[in-house]
Amino acid sequence: MIKPFKIGDIEVKSPILLAPMAGVTDYSFRILCKELGAGVVYSEFVSAHGIIRENINTLDLIKFYDEERPIGVQIFGDYPEVMAKAAKYVVDNFQPDILDINYGCPVPKITKKGAGSAALKDLVLMKDITQAVVASVPEVPVTIKMRAGWDLQSIIVEKAGELLEKASVKAIALHPRTAKQTYKGNANWELIKLLKETVSIPVIGNGDITKPDDVFRMYEQTGCDAIMIGRAALGNPWFFKQANALLHGNTAPEPTIQERVELCKRHFDLLLESRGTRKGLYLMRKHFGWYIKSFPGAADFRVRLVEAESIDSAKSILDEII
Ligand SMILES: Cc1cc2nc3c(=O)[nH]c(=O)nc-3n(C[C@H](O)[C@H](O)[C@H](O)COP(=O)(O)O)c2cc1C
User: Fold this and answer.
1) Where are the domains positioned within the chain?
2) What are phi and psi of 61, to 5 degrees?
């Protein structure tokens, strides 16, 4: 059932990929997911305008290490020329394996400027941005991550699929909700199947995978080539190990509380090293909430961890759990 999967010329070892997630998929989290079996990891979405203005905070979001490869850097923006310039800047200065365009972000702050999922209601803009980006970085495969349409009355999976394939993108990841739905309702996997039937480039299914054996269901129902995992990986990088084990006919056990806390500590250390102590502690708070759950007393530990004012006190609370 599992076919070898390539994005352009890049051999991807596992078809289970880590989805781009703003505020989450930085180096510390990506490397853990990679070590546990994610086939490709992605940066969070990065503003094309910020890139071409060389905004330091924006450029920081793009940094990655060789051990994370293959890695995709995702950009978003409104104007084709700006997107093309930003893509070239990213490729020239950072050399990612994949350059991904975001046509999925439904947040009004982004869409009202014509970026993210706004392209779903303007296929001319989608075509212009995609063609401009592909032409600006011929040495790197350009991929797309998109939703299924602006609203339920305007599903554009087939039209977008055709135009994106014609524009020479090398894979499309589809989260089959509309922009208007945000996260309401269910991801409609039938639309992943429809995209797979429409294009001959690889299709990456995404949306509502919550447990490892869901990957089987998605493969079977849609025929997709790979699967991208978002929320199910939060506080749970083991997801990749478990899903890969299943795909190879094995099982990987649930992590023990001890393993969960040890990984959380490692994540914390990586975050502190890569983002500095103040920011690292601040950023780790949400991860504590995702790791420390589903065992007796977890809620109390979580509250104490989120309120911890120093790195030492957070670490001693984690030790207490073990
Ligand atoms: C916290 C968070 C941040 C996200 N940020 C991005 C982003 O930067 N770029 C993107 O394309 N999608 C982003 N997404 C959407 C996810 O990549 C994914 O498409 C969505 O969560 C559905 O997949 P899931 O059901 O596996 O979570 C984000 C989702 C979450 C939960």
Assistant:
1) 5-247, 257-321
2) -70, -20
Question: Rounded CA gap, 59 and 211, in Å?
Answer: 34
Active-site position among 33, 105, 224, 264: 105
- Tens of pLDDT along the chain (322 residues) come to 567 789 999 999 999 999 999 999 999 999 999 999 999 999 999 999 999 999 999 999 999 999 999 999 999 999 999 999 999 999 999 999 999 999 999 999 999 999 999 999 999 999 999 999 999 999 999 999 999 999 999 999 999 999 999 999 999 999 999 999 999 999 999 999 999 999 999 999 999 999 999 999 999 999 999 999 999 999 999 999 999 999 999 998 999 999 999 999 999 999 999 999 999 999 999 999 999 999 999 999 999 999 999 999 999 999 999 8
Residue 72 alpha carbon to ligand 1 centre in Å:
14
- Compute the half-sphere exposure of residue 45: CA atoms within 13 Å on the CB side of its CA: 21
Give me ligand 1 centre to Cα 181, in Å. 14
What tokens were used for 153? 């009355």
Whether ligand 1 lies within 6 angstroms of the CB of 230 is answered as yes
Nearest CA to ligand 1 atom 21: 230
Fold adopted by 257-321: 1.10.1200
The CATH H-level superfamily of 5-247 is Aldolase class I (3.20.20.70)
> What tokens were used for 117?
């999922």
pTM of this prediction exceeds 0.90: yes
Give residue 38 CA to ligand 1 midpoint distance, Å: 16
Running DSSP on this structure, what letter comes out for residue 78?
S
Residue 105 bears catalytic tag: yes
SS3 40: coil
Atom 19 of ligand 1, residue of closest alpha carbon: 175
